[in-house]
Design brief:
There is one protein chain. By secondary structure, the protein is an alpha+beta fold. Among the domains are: 51 residues, no CATH class; 53 residues, Classic Zinc Finger (Double Stranded RNA Binding Domain, 2-Layer Sandwich), CATH 3.30.160.60; 51 residues; 81 residues, no CATH class. The chain is 39% helix and 11% strand. It contains 15 helices and 20 strands. Helix 14 packs across helix 15. The N terminus is likely disordered. It is found in: Nucleus. One of its GO terms (molecular function) is RNA polymerase II cis-regulatory region sequence-specific DNA binding. Its main location: nucleus. One of its GO terms (cellular component) is nucleus.
């Protein structure tokens, strides 16, 4: 007897798909065999299908390794996507506008913004409305506007205003229930009154409230692991605790204020090594040929002189662009920017060290007539003052000028050691220890006063506190 074929559809894998799980059963001539065989063949697939429907959720085994983050995921790919939010890596770039994103789904959503409006699949069915949307959720939210539905209610106590759109509620909160000038996106952190016009700016600001946002990875700090809330605080820690230093033993750990200075210093060591190798090679050649050694090398060596003067007939070369610029100003343009401060002296110099030499030799109490060698170095003519004022050396002149400046309200005397009003109440209850007399320095700016206190007296005070003290002192001083 011919074999019959029957088809039984168990279930569909996804809603809206036409292809389902189909089981083909071969029927024999005997009805009993058909029933038994169908039951035996259906028992296992049905059991496996029920397991799929009733299987528990997968365990989340992949935890974020960053400290302070409790995120856990079921797949390594999801964890890798999340880790990009910590590292800032954005591998998915838009080919049209070069914007970059953390996830491929975000890039796909952004790519739709470059497509025409007609490509949006969900169109509004309201007569006269031609708007189209990418998702059904956006279409549903738009349809609520046509129906007059308002689902965004003000959460402020005693306010019963309701709005159709979320941005209308935000505008209402910042104009009615907030101080004037408040922007829609407000920071809810305790004690913070900042607000922003964009949610992206608010999210970036919220990271500043994280006390463990930045950490020091220096070898000496790995055990204590200090944290910092701002980038500037971390940089201040690096400059004060781990300043850049030269690793060469002959420099005895020379310290620099910035990495730029250290790089320039390391370049000098490299040039010295190359210079030493060249000198050794030249010495060997001179020894083999019984010739005299070349002339004494120039200051700074011959290596690294990449900046050559372009003036015809001038073959001088320099190690930096700044040195070449100064050479052009002084030698070829004849500029003399360093002028002798004495009124009866007309000397001017192209270099600062020449001016200092002139002041020492010509305007000191033991002045001697200038020699021919000095005149050739200066390449200038002028008068010579009779003598140097002794009051300038002892500081009497400065004291006299300071007393004259103190007659006006624009100038302030350094308050050290009596820093009442500048330090915290607990720290300013008494005078600074080890100070026996008042400081005689006078300033006209709060900036200069703050630098003076930090450099001379070792007292570091906040900028706002110094400015407020100066303003209050000026307001209380009669003009």
């Amino acid at each position: 007897m011919s074999t019959l074929s029957s088809t039984i559809i168990l279930r569909k894998r996804k809603r809206g798909q036409d292809d389902g799980l189909v089981l083909h059963l071969a029927s024999s001539s005997s009805p009993e065999n058909d029933v038994s065989s169908s039951e035996s063949e259906l028992s296992e697939p049905l059991a496996s299908t029920s397991k799929l429907l009733q299987s528990p959720k997968r365990k989340k085994r992949y935890a974020c390794p960053f400290e302070g983050c409790d995120k856990v995921y079921t797949k390594p790919s999801r964890l890798a996507e999340h880790e990009r939010s910590h590292t800032g890596d954005r591998p998915f770039a838009c080919v049209t506008c070069d914007k970059r994103y953390l996830r491929e789904s975000h890039l796909q959503a952004h790519s739709r913004s470059h497509l025409p409006t007609s490509a949006r699949p969900f169109a509004c069915a309201e007569p006269g409305c031609e708007k189209r949307f990418w998702t059904a959720q956006h279409l549903q939210s738009h349809s609520e506007v046509h129906r007059g539905e308002k689902r965004y209610q003000c959460t402020h106590p005693g306010c019963e205003e309701i709005f159709a759109k979320h941005h209308q509620l935000r505008d209402h909160l910042c104009t009615v229930h907030a101080p004037p000038g408040t922007k829609p996106y407000q920071c809810e952190h305790d004690g913070c009154t900042k607000s922003f016009s964009m949610n992206q700016h608010l999210r970036a600001h919220l990271r500043t409230h994280d006390e463990k946002r930045y950490t020091c990875i220096h070898v000496s700090c790995l055990s204590s692991q200090p944290y910092f809330a701002t980038w500037s605080a971390l940089q201040h820690h690096m400059r004060s605790v781990h300043p850049p230093s030269c690793p060469h033993p002959e420099c005895n750990g020379k310290i620099f204020t910035a990495q730029k200075g250290l790089r320039a210093h390391m370049k000098i060591h490299e040039q010295r090594n190359v210079e030493a190798e060249l000198q050794a090679a030249l010495a060997e050649v001179a020894a083999d040929s019984d010739n005299e050694l070349p002339r004494k090398r120039r200051r700074g060596g011959e290596v690294g002189r990449d900046w050559v003067c372009a003036v015809s007939g001038c073959n001088k070369d320099f190690k930096s662009k700044k040195a070449l610029t100064v050479h052009n100003k002084v030698t070829h343009l004849g500029l003399r920017e360093f002028v002798c401060p004495h009124e009866d002296c007309d000397y001017a110099f192209g270099y600062k060290h020449l001016l200092q030499r002139h002041l020492t030799k010509q305007h000191s109490t033991t002045a001697e007539p200038p020699s021919n060698e000095q005149g050739a170095d200066n390449q200038d003519t002028g008068k010579i003052s009779d003598a140097f004022n002794i009051d300038d050396i002892t500081g009497v002149s400065y004291d006299t000028r300071a007393k004259e400046m103190m007659q006006t309200s624009k100038h302030l005397q350094c308050p050290h050691p009596h820093l009442h009003g500048l330090l915290e109440p607990s720290a300013s209850s008494s005078s600074m220890p080890g100070a026996s007399r008042n400081c005689d320095y006078v300033f006209s700016r709060a900036y200069d006063l703050r630098r003076h206190l930090r450099a001379i007296h070792g007292v570091d005070i906040e900028k706002d506190r110094v400015e407020n003290w100066v303003k209050a002192h000026r307001d209380s001083t009669p003009v």
